[in-house]
Design goal:
Elements lengths: L8 E5 L3 H13 L3 E5 L2 H8 L6 E5 L7 H10 L6 E5 L4 H10 L3 E4 L5 H10 L19 H19 L4 H8 L3 H10 L6
Parallel strand pairs: 1-2, 1-3, 3-4, 4-5
């Protein structure tokens, strides 16, 4: 298949062969190009001379783990979006990964992977600093405009994370009780 006809190029870094093969098959079935690395050292070799639109990386791997590879790549300016994955992550792992520069953190086994990938790849377009925020009438008072933005922001993250309040609170940098209050104030049903 012609390289330009893929929806995106994705590097999967995970030592669990069965898991990576399933992810690769799912992605390739809908026309993504997926490349597998079973270790950090293999991934480092693969990225030389190859460009990817997204990296899916497991936290726990033999040798160099995913967190230290994430930290290493971010520190040298590797700007491909990186999503961390784990089957047994603590909240502290999620927070650390996001603070280090991961764009998301997924729990394994991965469910509804394609909508998540599609969302991550479509939101990667560079943002022009002069670009207007869509859907906001700039003639509104600041509080009204902020409420519109916050509602869109929270609805986006609730949908992306299956209404997981703990994850959305972490993403938004809010205490859970503050998030619940904000959802109520904005009229968002949090089923």
């Amino acid at each position: 298949m012609d390289e330009g006809s893929y929806l995106g190029r994705i590097l999967i870094i995970d030592d669990e062969k069965e898991n990576t093969n399933i992810i690769k098959d799912i992605l390739e079935d809908v026309n993504y190009h997926a490349v597998i690395a079973s270790s950090a050292s293999e991934a480092k070799t693969i990225i030389i001379g190859n460009e990817f639109d997204l990296v899916l990386m497991d936290v726990w791997m033999p040798g160099q783990d995913g967190m230290s590879l994430l930290e290493e790549w971010i520190s040298v300016g590797y700007d491909t979006p990186i999503v961390m994955m784990s089957g047994h992550a603590e909240t502290s792992d999620v927070v650390r990964a996001l603070k280090l520069g991961a764009v998301d953190f997924l729990q394994k086994p991965l469910h509804d992977l394609l909508p998540i990938i599609r969302n991550l790849l479509t939101r990667q377009a560079p943002v022009d600093s002069n670009q207007e925020v869509s859907g906001i009438d700039f003639s509104l008072k600041l509080k009204e405009a902020r409420n519109i933005f916050e509602k869109q922001y929270l609805l986006h993250h609730l949908a992306l994370h299956d209404n997981n309040i703990a994850v959305v609170a972490e993403k938004a940098g809010l205490e859970r009780t503050t998030l619940y209050r904000k959802l109520k104030d904005l009229g968002i049903d949090k089923k």
